[in-house]
TrEMBL record:
Top-rank taxon: Bacteria
Compositionally skewed regions (Polar residues) per UniProt: 312-321
Species per Swiss-Prot/TrEMBL record: Salinispora arenicola
Entry protein name: Cytochrome P450
Ranges where the record places region Disordered: 67-89, 297-321
Family: Belongs to the cytochrome P450 family.
Length: 321
């Protein structure tokens, strides 16, 4: 193993991500880092290296190729980890095909009225207030309520799921016990909901996932549990962060704000640009080297984790570019 990682992720990065990334990119194209939960990794900073990495078959998302034991504070138990973001083809392809069989365009379209009702109710709750806290009042409860509606889960458990997820996403590396407790509780909850839907099927995504099949192929129990966990976890955090990031862009860029209000820039373009410029999760899914690789002549040993960050050339969102 090389020298100890010298770049850590923490609040300093969250306060000024673009400044921090620009500084790191100027220092070196590849950095040896340690993530908040203590895991070592290599951070690849420059566009062409990242582009090559994302298509390099020597790099795998499967943790079986990791040279670490995986026992870090926020490491997921195997039954929550067997989702498609941790699987290479052909398993990734199989899991995605099974998910698509349940996550149909009709099911998504049918959710539109329910989503509109949830948004209206949340906005009505703050309509008479002089000021409101966006994340707590709208960005956080909205995706949780939508995902509970889509999956057919009890709505009263949305606050519990938000607390579990926030614990897992904490940047505090000193809370492994809390993370493990949150994961265990979340696992028990999801297993209970799967058992409930097996006994009482409904017209919802959870029932659809239970019934999904591709010829004779179906989700294993672990794959199904991990898929539901991924939908809930990613559906909540990514959407909540996106709402906050889009709103922040509109409030801090007067030209963009005025262009949207005037109709010269449509909001869909703003969302797309914010996803590029200030994404909810700034790194690519980490990969493990199946064999030694050398981005920008930096030797990376087999088994090493390799997240990637692409360059962001614009200092602010510009949907017209």
């Amino acid at each position: 193993m090389t020298s100890p990682p010298h770049v850590a992720f923490g609040h300093h990065l969250l306060r000024d991500p673009h400044g921090q990334y620009n500084a790191l990119r100027g220092q070196a194209p590849v950095h040896h880092i340690r993530t908040p939960d203590g895991a070592p990794a290599w951070l690849v900073m420059r566009y062409h290296d990242v582009q090559a990495a994302l298509t390099d078959l020597r790099l795998s998302v499967d943790k079986r190729f990791s040279d670490t034991d995986g026992e870090h504070g926020s490491s997921l138990p195997p039954e929550l980890d067997a989702h498609l973001l941790n699987r290479d083809p052909p398993d990734h392809t199989r899991l995605r095909r099974l998910a698509a069989a349940a996550f149909t365009p009709r099911r998504v379209a049918d959710q539109a009225p329910a989503v509109a009702t949830i948004v209206d109710a949340l906005l009505d709750g703050i309509a008479d207030q002089d000021q409101a806290e966006l994340i707590g009042a709208l960005a956080s409860p909205l995706p949780l309520q939508v995902m509970h509606e889509l999956l057919g889960l009890p709505t009263q458990t949305s606050v519990d799921f938000r607390n579990w997820t926030n614990t897992l996403l904490s940047a505090d590396a000193n809370q492994p016990a809390q993370s493990r407790s949150a994961m265990a509780t979340m696992r028990r909850f999801l297993m209970g909901q799967l058992a409930r839907k097996r006994a009482q099927p409904g017209d919802d995504l959870l029932t659809g996932l239970l019934a999904a099949r591709d010829d004779d192929d179906r989700f294993t129990d672990d794959e199904l549990l991990a898929m539901v966990f991924l939908l809930m976890f990613a559906g909540y955090d990514n959407t909540a962060a996106l709402i906050g990031n889009v709103t922040h862009a509109l409030l801090t860029d007067a030209g963009l704000h005025d262009a949207v209000r005037a109709g010269s820039v449509d909001l869909d373009s703003v969302v797309d640009e914010v996803l590029r410029w200030n994404p909810s999760f700034p790194l690519a899914v980490r990969r493990f080297a199946r064999e030694p690789v050398t981005p920008s002549r930096q030797a990376i040993a087999s088994g090493s984790a390799w997240p990637a960050r692409t360059a962001t050339p614009h200092s602010s969102p510009n949907p017209t570019n």
